[in-house]
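Budget justification aside, the reviewers requested a transparent look at the raw inputs and outputs of the sequence design task funded under Objective 1. We therefore reproduce one unedited record. The lines immediately below are the C-alpha cells for a 676-residue chain.
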C-alpha cells in the first residue's frame, strides 16, 4: 500500500499570544519546523514578516505512523504574537537526521496551490488570527460527523465562511470547537472497513490485526460480522457490526476522516464486496445498507478538500463523546466494569483513547500529558501498562484561550455512579475539583460569563428527558441513552452549585452537540436566591441527517411547549402521608424527579399543592427560542454548523445555525441576552 508522506494535516490547534500549535501526521520520521508570519500588506511586494518560529515534538505510533506537534513561539524581540492581525504559518519538513537534505515547505508539498491547496481567500499561506480587542468573539462549533451519514458535510459551510471572511477579522471566526463524535468507532461503513483494517496494519505493522486479546485476526472477520463479537467484549452498541477494534483501525479512521489521500482510489461495489470480503454472506438488508453507505461515503470524500482547508485555517479544539470510542461508553458502572473485565473490551477502549490522544487531545493542551503517558502510547498496546494507563488517565478536560474563557468538560471518563445501572453523575467529585483548578488557570472571574463545553447538552428537550426517565426501568439504560445531565439530578445540582456558589457566576454560554438536531435554549438555575443565566446552544449533526429524521424533528419542534419551570429541594421535603397525589408522585411511573435521598424537582403548581409550607432550594427555567426565519421551527434537523458571536459589551450572543442541504447553506439565526 502506498502511503502519502503527509497523511493528515496540517491542523491548526491551540493558538494564543505566547504559542501557536500545528499538528500533522506523516508516514515516515521527519523533522518538522514551523514559522509564523504577519500577513499585512508589505511595501514593494516584500515577503511577509516573520514573527515567530519553532520545532515539533514527534511520537512514533507505528513503523509508518508518526504524529508531530509543532510549537511556535513569538520572536523574543516582540514577546507576544500580535492580536487582531492576520497571521499565517508555513512548515518545513526534512528527513530526520539528514541535515544534507533540502527543506520542503508547504509549497513544495503542493499545499499552497492546485487541487490540494489549504489556503483561503487568496492568501499566500494558511492563516488565522488571535482575537484581542475586537468587539465580538466569533466561534464555530459542531459535532457528530458520521462519514456515511446522510446529507452533506456541514464543514462545507465553514469553508465558505472562511473564504468570505478571510481578511475581515470582524467576521472571521477565531476558533472552532468540535464537541464530540469526531469519528464513530462503533458505526463503520461496510465499504470502508476492509480498507481501514489494511491501512491500520500498514501503519502499525502486521501484528495490529492480532493485537486485541480474544478477538480473531481482524482481516478474517466477515463484513458486518462484529456485532456478536462486540457483545462478547461487553459493548452495548446496537450498530457495532463493523466496530473498530485495533489501534491501527482507529488511527486509520482519523486519517480517512481528515484527508482524501488516505482513501482507496475505488471503494468496492456490493458485488466486489460479496466476492472478496463478505464471503457471499450478506443478507438482502445488508446489501441495501452497503449500497446506501457507498453513496454516502463518496459524498463525504468530495467534501474532504474543504474539510482540510477548514482545519488548517482556524484554531481547533476537540473533546470526545461516546462514539469516539463506542456507543454508551461508561454509561453505567455496570457497563464500565463489564468492559474492563473483558481483555478484548478493555483493549478496544484503550486503543480508542490512544488514538484520541494522538489525533485530537494532544493539540488541545499538551502540558497535561506527562512523559509516561506518551511513552506508553508510543510503546504500542503490547506494553502491559497500556490498558491501565489509558483507562486511569484523568486529565482530558482543559480550558481554551478564548475571551470569555472556555472550560471544556470531560463528561465521559470521570463519572460517579450511585448504583450499577442507574444514571451517572457526569462529573464526579475529582472532576469537579479539576474544574475548579481549570477555572482558576483560565482566569474565570465572577460574575462571568464563561463558555462551557459539554458534549451532551445540559438543557435539551424536556420532553425527551421525561421520556428517558419513564422508559429507563422498562427498557434499560442502554436502549434509551439514559445518561444526560437531568438523568441524575444530584450530579446536575453539584455542578450548578459549583458554578453559582463557588465560582460566583451569574451568566454562562454552554456549547453542546450529541443529539443530532440543533436547538437554542434560554435557561436559568437558581440556588437559594442566586441566579445563573444560561444560554444553551446546540449544534448537531455535522453529517448525520436524513429526510425522515428532519420531518419528524420539524413536527416535534412544532408540538413541544416552549416554556418550562421547576422548583426543587436538596432532599425530599416532608409531605402529608394521606395525600393521594403525593403517593402517586413517588411511584416509578411518575416522570417528575422524586428520590428518597437526593434532590427533588416538581412543577411549581404541583409543589404549591403538595408542599405549600416549604420554600424550595432550587428553581429552574428553560425556554426554547426559535430562529428568526419564519419557516423554521424550534428544532433544526438538517446537517449544520453553529456560528456563535458573543458581544460582551452589548450583553448579547447570536447563534447562526448554518444548515447544509442541496449544495447550499441556509442560516437560521437567534439572538439571546447573556445576562440575567
Amino acid at each position: 500500500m502506498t502511503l502519502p508522506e503527509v497523511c493528515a494535516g496540517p491542523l491548526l490547534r491551540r493558538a494564543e499570544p505566547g504559542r501557536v500549535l500545528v499538528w500533522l501526521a506523516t508516514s515516515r520520521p521527519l523533522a518538522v519546523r514551523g514559522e509564523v508570519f504577519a500577513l499585512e500588506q508589505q511595501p514593494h511586494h516584500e515577503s511577509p514578516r516573520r514573527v515567530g518560529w519553532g520545532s515539533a515534538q514527534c511520537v512514533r505510533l507505528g513503523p509508518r505512523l508518526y504524529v508531530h506537534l509543532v510549537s511556535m513561539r513569538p520572536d523574543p524581540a516582540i514577546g507576544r504574537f500580535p492580536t487582531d492581525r492576520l497571521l499565517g504559518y508555513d512548515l518545513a519538513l526534512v528527513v530526520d537526521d539528514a541535515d544534507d537534505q533540502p527543506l520542503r515547505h508547504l509549497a513544495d508539498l503542493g499545499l499552497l496551490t492546485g487541487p490540494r491547496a489549504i489556503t483561503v481567500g487568496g492568501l499566500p499561506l494558511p492563516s488565522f488570527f488571535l482575537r484581542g480587542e475586537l468587539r465580538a468573539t466569533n466561534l464555530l462549533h459542531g459535532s457528530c460527523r458520521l462519514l456515511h451519514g446522510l446529507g452533506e458535510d456541514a464543514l462545507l459551510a465553514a469553508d465558505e465562511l472562511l473564504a468570505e471572511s478571510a481578511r475581515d477579522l470582524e467576521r472571521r471566526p477565531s476558533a472552532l470547537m468540535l464537541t464530540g463524535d469526531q469519528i464513530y468507532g462503533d458505526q463503520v461503513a461496510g465499504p470502508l472497513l476492509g480498507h481501514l483494517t489494511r491501512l491500520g496494519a500498514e501503519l502499525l505493522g502486521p501484528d495490529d490485526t492480532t493485537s486485541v486479546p480474544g478477538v480473531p485476526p481482524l482481516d478474517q472477520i466477515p463484513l458486518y460480522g462484529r456485532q456478536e463479537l462486540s457483545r462478547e467484549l461487553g459493548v452495548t452498541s446496537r450498530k457495532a457490526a463493523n466496530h473498530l477494534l485495533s489501534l491501527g483501525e482507529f488511527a486509520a479512521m482519523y486519517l480517512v476522516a481528515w484527508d482524501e489521500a488516505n482513501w482507496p482510489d475505488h471503494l468496492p461495489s456490493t458485488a466486489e464486496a460479496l466476492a472478496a470480503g463478505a464471503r457471499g454472506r450478506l443478507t438482502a438488508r445488508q446489501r441495501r445498507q452497503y449500497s446506501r453507505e457507498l453513496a454516502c461515503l463518496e459524498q463525504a470524500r468530495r467534501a474532504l478538500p474543504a474539510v482540510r482547508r477548514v482545519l488548517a485555517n482556524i484554531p481547533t479544539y476537540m473533546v470526545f463523546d461516546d462514539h469516539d470510542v463506542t456507543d454508551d461508553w461508561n454509561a453505567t458502572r455496570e457497563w464500565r466494569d463489564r468492559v474492563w473485565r473483558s481483555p478484548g473490551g478493555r483493549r478496544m477502549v484503550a486503543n480508542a483513547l490512544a488514538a484520541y490522544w494522538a489525533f485530537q487531545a494532544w493539540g488541545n493542551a499538551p502540558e497535561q500529558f506527562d512523559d509516561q503517558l506518551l511513552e506508553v502510547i508510543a510503546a504500542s498496546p503490547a506494553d502491559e501498562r497500556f490498558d491501565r494507563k489509558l483507562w486511569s488517565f484523568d486529565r482530558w478536560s482543559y480550558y481554551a484561550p478564548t475571551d470569555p474563557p472556555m472550560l471544556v468538560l470531560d463528561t465521559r471518563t470521570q463519572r460517579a455512579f450511585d448504583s450499577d445501572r442507574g444514571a451517572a453523575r457526569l462529573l464526579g467529585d475529582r472532576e469537579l475539583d479539576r474544574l475548579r483548578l481549570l477555572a482558576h488557570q483560565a482566569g474565570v472571574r465572577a460574575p462571568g460569563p464563561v463558555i462551557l463545553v459539554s458534549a451532551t447538552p445540559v438543557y435539551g428537550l424536556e420532553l425527551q428527558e421525561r421520556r428517558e426517565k419513564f422508559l429507563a426501568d422498562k427498557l434499560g439504560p442502554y436502549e434509551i441513552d439514559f445518561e444526560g445531565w437531568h438523568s441524575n439530578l444530584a450530579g446536575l445540582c453539584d455542578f450548578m452549585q459549583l458554578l453559582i456558589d463557588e465560582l460566583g457566576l451569574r451568566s454562562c454560554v454552554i456549547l453542546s452537540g450529541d443529539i443530532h438536531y440543533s436547538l437554542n435554549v434560554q435557561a436559568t438555575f437558581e440556588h437559594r436566591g442566586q441566579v445563573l443565566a444560561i444560554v444553551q446552544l446546540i449544534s448537531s449533526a455535522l453529517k448525520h441527517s436524513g429526510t425522515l429524521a428532519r420531518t419528524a424533528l420539524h413536527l416535534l419542534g412544532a408540538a413541544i411547549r416552549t416554556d418550562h419551570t421547576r422548583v426543587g429541594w436538596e432532599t425530599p421535603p416532608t409531605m402529608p402521608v394521606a395525600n393521594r397525589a403525593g403517593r402517586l408522585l413517588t411511584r416509578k411511573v411518575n416522570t417528575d424527579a422524586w428520590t428518597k435521598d437526593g434532590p427533588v424537582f416538581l412543577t411549581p403548581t404541583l409543589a404549591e399543592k403538595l408542599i405549600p409550607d416549604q420554600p424550595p432550594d432550587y428553581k429552574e427555567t428553560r425556554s426554547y427560542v426559535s430562529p428568526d426565519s419564519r419557516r423554521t421551527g424550534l428544532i433544526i434537523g438538517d446537517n449544520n454548523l453553529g456560528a456563535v458571536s458573543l458581544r460582551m459589551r452589548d450583553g448579547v450572543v447570536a447563534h447562526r445555525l448554518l444548515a447544509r442541504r442541496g449544495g447550499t447553506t441556509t442560516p437560521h439565526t437567534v439572538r439571546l441576552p447573556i445576562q440575567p
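The longest strand covers residues 49-62. The chain has three domains: 1-130, 150-174+397-676, 180-393. Computational costs for records of this kind are itemized in the attached budget.
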